[in-house]
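Fold this complex.
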Amino acid sequence: MVTRVVSFDCEGYRLYGTLHTPRQPSSSGSGVVVLNQGPLDRSGAHRMSIKLAQRWTASGVPVLRFDARGAGESEGTWTEPAEGSPIRLLYKNIEEGAWVPDTHAAVRFLQSETGVQRVLLSGLCGGAATALHAGATHPSVSGILMVGMPVRLQAEVRGVKDILDSHLRTESQRYFQRALSLDAWKRFFSMESDYRTMLAVLAKRAEALYRRKPAQDPSLNRILMTHLRDALRARKRLLFVYPENDYLWAEFRELFLPLFANVADQFTVRTIAQANHTFTEPEWQRDLYEILTAWVRAEYQQAGAA
Amino acid sequence: MFTRQHDGVVEEPLRLEGAAGSLHAMLHLPRSGAVRGGVVVAAPDGEERAWAERSLVVTARGLADQGFAVLRFDFGGQGESDGDYERTTMATRIADLRAAVEALRQRIGRSPLVLGVRLGGAVTLAAAAAGDDVHDVVLWEPTLAPGQYVHQLLRVNVSTQMVAHGQVLKDRDRLIADARGGALISVNGYNLTGAFIDELLTLDVLSTLRARTGRTLVLANGPVNSELAGQPGVDTERISCPPFWTEPKLHVASPPPFLTRTIAWLSGPVGRAA
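Structure:
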């Protein structure tokens, strides 16, 4: 495997990346582009992106990891007040596709450097949203791997009122079980309890009993939904992977999946038990790498056969 | 949505030979070619490195805009450098930093200063004590009590146990014992070894700092350690600065507020000497 730092242009900004090329490329003519996990640099949380790239390149597949504008080592500064802005607004920009031009530039660069025709896009969290936005109708993108993708705009999820009913039910049950303890009553009468949250939880639970739920959660990322429909129409291969100990999984399962129930056979959903959002434990990482690598291999075997 | 900054800076990716493999580095130079001094950036460690990365990139560009040649690099097993995190130690970090200092010294023909951030600050002081290649240093929110730092890291592991299993299966003492027995302890996905934990637990950063002969600037968001105030050769200042080495609530695209004071200090006698 040969690994080298590369750079290419996106709308006049220089983007830096790392290109992994196999010594013996497979005959599939395919490659992978790995996207930033939100504002983190191209190595990813605890270097997950590097570890995945190494596995895929060992299978004969070239991989490009790169930093989009405003991230890692690349040029471009997010336009915002000098004192900064809430991180949720940055996430919103990413979740709505701010890095689509960067991703398309990366696809072009990977193709020009390695000669691959077909490209898979892979991303975790905000990177998954970017992958879907950028790949939905792109003619060279054959498949999209989305890990822990947020389906609601995080800037629109503000407090107890936006928490999923199922999650609230579980948490409030746990809370009121704890409330039976002597310590909890001591905290309550010594003014140490979080009364505001307790009241908000109770109000939300009471409201849930009487309120008619809207057909569609208003905080869902509508652009993302449109692009998923586009990707399905374009017959892209789609893989969603979620860590089960991640609130984003509950949102995907309860708010997003039901809207696509009639086409659920056209994409794959896999979960990893107990895992958290960034797969911090070795066994969760192992499961994630196995799922993604098997999927990438299957894609290229299919491409090679075609 | 994006703007252009630091057009007066040119950048060059480099590979350096580190203690346990090839290191990724980026050289930031003033486009004018006139270099007034050199700065090597010693980054924070593990998860803190990941969150600090962008702030240190814009810091390097800000320094290069002011005429400094800046070398940023990733320690072995971190970022874009080769190696596995669990195979690294304080000794490999010190060797990596000294390799970066030597690379920049050869490039610009004079000894650079080192800007050490968080644990990178502790590595910087240890490197300065180990040889005369690291002399004047700037420390941003340095980890002055590595023992406390270790316990904060282990607390992350304990919290993860609570979320995953609903209970604490191993407390911090048990985790340390397991690490000493050869187990790897995951902290946000970075695997701590017993050797690294013990190095940190026995590292006496304050004594190293007290014994220094080079000039030192310490900038901190909170109260600066009282033992440092008034020590000859050590300038300390408390400056309000968001903790850019942790997951932020606020996104700030500009360099940390520590940079302005750092440039002023580098523009004084220390910078001119370098």
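Chain B has a mean pLDDT of 94.
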